[in-house]
Amino acid sequence: MYTQDDKRCTLGDLVTHVQSGDCVAIGGGLSWREPMAAIRELIRQDIKGLKLVGSAHGIDVDLLCGAGVVAVSAESYVGFEQDFGMAINYRRACEAGLVKVEDNCCYTLVQQLRAAISGLPFMPIRSVQGTDFIQLHPEFKTMTCPFTGDQLVLVPALKPDVAILHAHYADQHGNLHIEGPPVADILFAKASAKVIVTVEEIIPHEELAQKGVTIPYFYVTAISEVPYGAHPTSCYPHYAYDREHTANYYQAAKHGADGFRENYLNPFIFGCKDNDTYIEAIGGKAKLACLEQWEESVEQWIQLYE
Length: 306
Known about the structure:
By secondary structure, the protein is α/β, with parallel strands linked by helices. The chain has a domain at about 10-105 and about 160-280: 3-Layer(aba) Sandwich (Glutaconate Coenzyme A-transferase), CATH 3.40.1080. The chain is built from 14 helices and 11 strands. The chain has helices spanning about 10-15, 35-45, 60-65, 80-85, 90-95, 105-120, 135, 185-190, 205-210, 245-255, 255-270, 275-280, 285-290, 300-305, and strands at about 25, 50-55, 70-80, 100, 120-125, 140-145, 150-155, 160-170, 175, 195-200, 220-225. The mean pLDDT is about 95.
């Protein structure tokens, strides 16, 4: 339980809570509210050998794989959905044996987190029976239910070392407000040993309380105010997904590991000392203003995806 009165810190200090070899849960999902600024800083700090756990993810996990940060992936899905397709860096790293694949399914992950939250060693599930998931996870066990006689799968509790989240608002104590779907963020916060968070804006407690507390302060280890910290994923209603930047990222990934480093990692990660420098590199205030105008009209948001 984290009860410091003021949990604010710099982005660089925030990421020092992650150590090489940690099991890390990444908040958000697909192209929505992923903690991209923290992920870029994690790469700059050369933290490696991570085990990633999560539900459906995209550019966040793909970027970490492209940077050589990941040792094990226990995600349920990594891809760019119908827009671009396969996650190229992720696939390349897995096929080369650089990343061990421990594919999971969303509901199994949820039950594993619930077990950790409840202080239980395992939870029963039905959802993976008849699949090869059990072969990927020798730690899963089976049993006959003593009440119904049904066959059940038992999955062990999952307690990540660190959860990395991005939220819309926080107060200095660490109370968080997330607008829209929280995805698995609330479960991650409750189950993880540490929770570090970037936020669009840190606001007074009274204002945060009026908006509503999504995740209370005592789960949160540290926070850093990083406007546009989810870019190039969306953080509705603040800003939309940056399809143009993602398309450029995807093209860079197609050119192999060396091409990806030259065309993406160097200009947008290693060549940017902080998130402000990154924002300038991706087009500055003009780009952000465009992404913020998504809700002005149907035509406005359609133009962003053409």
